[in-house]
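Predict the 3D structure for this chain.
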Amino acid sequence: MHFIEWYPRGYGVAFKIKEKLFETQSSYQRIEIYETEGFGKLLVLEGTVQLVEQGEESYHEPLVHPVMLAHPNPRKVLIIGGGDGGTLREVLKHRTVEKAIMVEIDEMVVEISKIYLGIDRGAFDDPRAEVVIGDGVEYIKRTGEKFDVIIIDSTDPVGPAKQLFSEEFYRHAYEVLNSEGILITQSGSVYLFTNELLDAYSAMKRVFDRVYYFSFPVIGYASPWSFLVGIKGSIDFEKIDVNRAKELELVYYDPERHETLFQMPKYVKELLEGKLKL
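Done. Predicted structure below.
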């Protein structure tokens, strides 16, 4: 038995499966949990791989720690999505954090992740954490709160999640950041979602004071996977607090080699910088 996620142009990522542990249809999506042969449990939403238990840090660490370490004092963090709890777990590793709000539209993802995955490792019960079940787009429009860091841990930049990569959404996000703030979003496969990456980058550039892009090899995804970072204020994302990083137990992201994040294929870099057209 096997599970394959098919990407554009007939590219697939496959896992050998021991058994299907769970399947249901929530109000929003089909949720499946599998036991793989070599990577523990596999979480699948609407046919797309969200994470594999053994290796999920290869996604959550680069999503969280580079921006947290680039911000001088990240005390209040907003997470949009992230119902499995991995992003919340990594955020709460930072002792500066006083409050982390996670807004997840599908409560069933949270509950099933608690039962079958447990990768939050107690994060959902941390007194600094607040879980809001609701639409992240609407939340960011209506909230009166301000944040130091916003992390968009959504599904791929296609279909229903596309509005999380829009100029309108980024404008609302910019407004709820403090004067020195930073936003990060995952932005899909560098090779297979190139157009979506370019669109999100262009939208971000029209809103934020500065925009950075980087990539990271993520287990279970069509790597390299891209990330976009928007800056409000004077934060330099190329510089991080290595001393604070020493307090963290990390597996994949190496703060002492932060500069390696910015290695992007030449043609993609030229596309992003407008030196090359598709």
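DSSP finds eight helices and twelve strands in the chain.
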